[in-house]
Amino acid sequence: xxxxxxxxxxxxxxxxxxxxxxxxxxxxxxxxxxxxxxxxxxxxxxxxxxxxxxxxxxxxxxxxxxxxxxxxxxxxxxxxxxxxxxxxxxxxxxxxxxxxxxxxxxxxxxxxxxxxxxxxxxxxxxxxxxxxxxxxxxxxxxxxxxxxxxxxxxxxxxxxxxxxxxxxxxxxxxxxxxxxxxxxxxxxxxxxxxxxxxxxxxxxxxxxxxxxxxxxxxxxxxxxxxxxxxxxxxxxxxxxxxxxxxxxxxxxxxxxxxxxxxxxxxxxxxxxxxxxxxxxxxxxxxxxxxxxxxxxxxxxxxxxxxxxxxxxxxxxxxxxxxxxxxxxxxxxxxxxxxxxxxxxxxxxxxxxxxxxxxxxxxxxxxxxxxxxxxxxxxxxxxxxxxxxxxxxxxxxxxxxxxxxxxxxxxxxxxxxxxxxxxxxxxxxxxxxxxxxxxxxxxxxxxxxxxxxxxxxxxxxxxxxxxxxxxxxxxxxxxxxxxxxxxxxxxxxxxxxxxxxxxxxxxxxxxxxxxxxxxxxxxxxxxxxxxxxxxxxxxxxxxxxxxxxxxxxxxxxxxxxxxxxxxxxxxxxxxxxxxxxxxxxxxxxxxxxxxxxxxxxxxxxxxxxxxxxxxxxxxxxxxxxxxxxxxxxxxxxxxxxxxxxxxxxxxxxxxxxxxxxxxxxxxxxxxxxxxxxxxxxxxxxxxxx
Length: 688
Hints:
- This protein is an alpha/beta fold.
- It has 25 helices and 16 strands.
- The strands form five sheets. A six-stranded mixed beta sheet has the order 13-12-11-14-15-16, sandwiched between helices. It has a three-stranded mixed beta sheet with strand order 1-3-2.
- Helix 5 crosses helix 10, helix 7 crosses helix 8 and helix 18 packs parallel to helix 25.
């Protein structure tokens, strides 16, 4: 038998019983017992799966569940749950739960476009532990509803006992951060109706808002609702609440850190030496090892991304170090600004929450199984033919299409070394927070829509979705009004790229990556704003344009991409290709002149009134051909309200520090250019 993918259970993790999780190696007796349990219940498992999934005991040495998407086979190791204190009956329930997780994955891969949806979903699980925990809790409601609907009252009684005794015997969640309270409470209250959890007031308010969307939870977690529809509804109504609470939790951590620092300074203790975060262990336990920035590394693994029901107890919030206020010295001592990474800040809390959701099938192994499935579904020749046909449809070269896709895939894996979070995921989280901050409920006339606040016909929604209509108009919506305050209604971002001959090689390659990063994230941001258009009184609009300079005035003053919200795939690929050509000189002033000429009085007035924010970011690897001319046009742009920033590439780009002063910086390591660009976008978009 082909050995399926699996990963070891983390050694030494504490479980509810107080015992350590056994090491990954199995004894002969353990393996025999696990196989025996599967054999005892094989007929039941196979009848439950109705032939859609093959059931096999996990081979010796495999301490977890695993699956093979190509052969629709799930490998069961019952010891995974028995070792966590579950009885045989509860282990059977947990196994059915895992079968449901597996069938959900098979279902989404069978949809048109399901592979891409699943790819994006896995990337979000990997990069955001807040999203992973939230998704786990919502998915668990769905999986358990499916198990109950296909079995009997005895299984429902077992499930209730699991949640009241094994998972959440303690229903006071106020000792953990609010976004974690919300996710756990929404699961516990859904599976133990009539018992409210004790949570913070703003968490209860968010839970109440969800409950007011009539029919939402019923439809979203219905076993007949497709996984792709679940994810859409989850994003629209659940993740927005989690993102808003997460932002509050981060602000609390900032204030806590500030108070601690002020207290230290008042006692004459000076700055933190970055030796590590606060201990979060039980008495006698060592705290997590500190990294160079002073943050606790505890909880980096075992974050529960496998989407499984879980075991364990809650714990006090973690005390990981929060570093890097603007203009101050970071705990790591490098003096650079460091963003507050939620995965690191709440690492201990995620680790504790993760013990309630052990990784029966770890995320890395799901990725491997998906990769094998893709390879089986699409041979290299057929994929190449499909790319050729698609490229011809777009009007681009196949090689350019494939190169662009490869670069996008590489960027999705790009991690900010200062936060240990994907650069694109950081920006996506920022965009979600921007949107969530701008919304405020207000009563308004109701009308039928495809997605809304009040579900008026749950049965029709399920029926339409099953028949292939993923946008049924069975909701009633209340309009959302923009929260009053200082918030821009429009943002325009201009990227100016250097196509001088000295850029040839790695510098041009990293500049292209940066441009692709801008195009991809702003395209998504613009789409998100458009999606939420009906929910705000004054919609947020995001537009972008791209220039490049190579010394030819006419070409330099003509944008590669005109200012607009649209950014089609063919246009992005053509810009990507153009930036690979570096024939000219450093005539950055041509582009800046064109940008200033485009500022009419109406645009200037909107900037002064705070309705429009314009950001211009210029890349260059050397001194301008005419620094005085650059400084003159920069002054006019900045006096008009434009934020203009110069970014020098490598040491040769250091003249930007004087030419583009005061808003200028040099990126000496060219590979950091996309990361720096991501930081600039976060810095200048955070006040939207």
